Amino acid sequence: MEYNTTRNHLTIREYGRHIQKMVDHIITIEDRQKRQEQAHVVIELMGFLNPHLKNVEDFRHKLWDHLFLISDFKLDVDSPYPIPTRESLKARPEPLPYPKRYPRYNHLGKNIEVVIDKALKEENPEKKQGFANAIAYYMKLSYNNWHKENIHDDAVQAELSAITKGELEFNNRPFVRQYRPSDDFRENRGGGGKFKKHFQQRSGSGGGRDNRGGGGGRDNRGGNNNKFKKRY
């Protein structure tokens, strides 16, 4: 009986113990051509056992990298891709610098400044006018989202002219849906909402539709009141 405690370390568990044993056997083959053929056979088997890798871009490159990793970089075969090294696979990426952007207009953000700069550099008048209309719509929408009220188009044009020094003017009337305070409560279906439904109890001692015990129900089978007598 062979226990896992006596076996070698399993480098990549997704491929299983048998793949690792096959790779260890390929390392011991002295004939280079035969070793190369067996390496291709193992690559095909690795792709068959892990079909999800086919959805990965350049999945065969990943299989070859895994083959050298399983062999602890001791396998001496030719690869159609650059052969990885232990240092290259364990190297840590360089830290990404945190983006530090200081927008000139905090209420509009940095992205709108990028769009404005691109619009000012546009030479095609139709595209430049389209940029101006889109910027005006975004400015009006941002004001509505933050202040919960609409802003007049003249105020939007005045601010756009101040930002671009009069180089951009929109010729459309950007429409933004008017904010209504009732929108915050329309989807509130829980208790305590503004539009909470109030149910009124039916008249009669029982208050039910099928009052079999008597007392003013619609189908009064046990009482003497014939006001709601059944019609056939």
In short:
This protein is mainly alpha-helical. It has helices at residues 16-28, 32-49, 59-70, 86-90, 111-121, 125-147, 153-164, 183-186.
Tell me the layout of helices and strands.
Elements: H1 16-28, H2 32-49, H3 59-70, H4 86-90, H5 111-121, H6 125-147, H7 153-164, H8 183-186
Helix pairs in contact: 1-2, 2-3, 5-6, 6-7
Number of strands: 0
Helix content: 40-55%
Rounded mean pLDDT score: 77
Characterize the overall form. Answer: elongated
Organism: Lacibacter luteus
InterPro entries: DUF4290 (IPR025632)
Protein name: DUF4290 domain-containing protein
Describe, in plain words, how this protein is organized in 3D:
There is one protein chain. The chain has 8 helices and no strands. It is mostly helical and 232 residues long. Among the domains are: 15-90, no CATH class; 102-180, no CATH class. Residues 191-199, 204-211 and 213-217 have low confidence and may be disordered.
